[in-house]
Amino acid sequence: MALRHLLMGNGLSLARHARRHANGIFAAPGPGRVIDPVVGRVQKARAAVGALTTFLLISVYGVDGGWSAVFEDGFTKLFLAPLVLILVGPLVIGGFIWYAPRQHRPVLRSRLRYPLRAIGWYLGIPIGVVGAVLLLLGLSKVLEGIFVIQAVIFLAVLIAGIPLLIWTAAFLFFASGAAARYAFNTADVHAALPAVLTAVLVWVLNLAQLGDGLPNGPVAVKIAAFLGGPLSVTAVSYWELHVLRTRYGVRVRG
């Protein structure tokens, strides 16, 4: 019982540390980020209404695979969103910079180091930790028969490797949400970029999972469930661009 409480306590401490580190990388205020409390509240309200609507639709009409399929779809989107951003983001950012006035393009390109650094953290930490653990395990197999070295490697994996893997899993969980929300710190390139990327991301994710997790019921319900999320996110993103332009003087071509 004491061992279980100790492991749970250490796991929670690792998760809290991983969350602070993820927020420090992806959610910390940057030099180009415009934080408007009204926009933030509207985004949270849209997310809450969307979740409630989805819950009501599935409660009334059901969905193939049941609630387990719904939760699985949610977790898939959580980790898929940053990967889609990494793949699609360069095309959107490239088009955004091309659309900007010629005299502003060198400045925008010079600021690409901020999202590139964020992507490096997001990919580098899990790849490095998993690679190190696999290297130790491979080394143990190569040195099979040398008991002392194998014991040292086993202890290293047990004492450092397992906590690192737990920390990395927690970091990926928290970092995936923050990276998708702040679009890998692309606001430091241009304050309007996260809104543009969010609108593109939600449509790409919807098309990538076309038909997955849609409620049963009439065709109108399926269409509403499929288009409701992307259309509402696009509307909020468009309104965010309007707020940036009218309240803060931020223009896509400015």
From TrEMBL:
The chain crosses the membrane at residues 47-67, 79-100, 121-140, 146-175, 187-207, 219-241. Keywords: Membrane, Transmembrane, Transmembrane helix. Signal peptide: none annotated. It comes from the Bacteria. The keyword Transmembrane applies. This is Integral membrane protein. It comes from Streptomyces nondiastaticus. The lineage of its organism: Bacteria, Bacillati, Actinomycetota, Actinomycetes, Kitasatosporales.
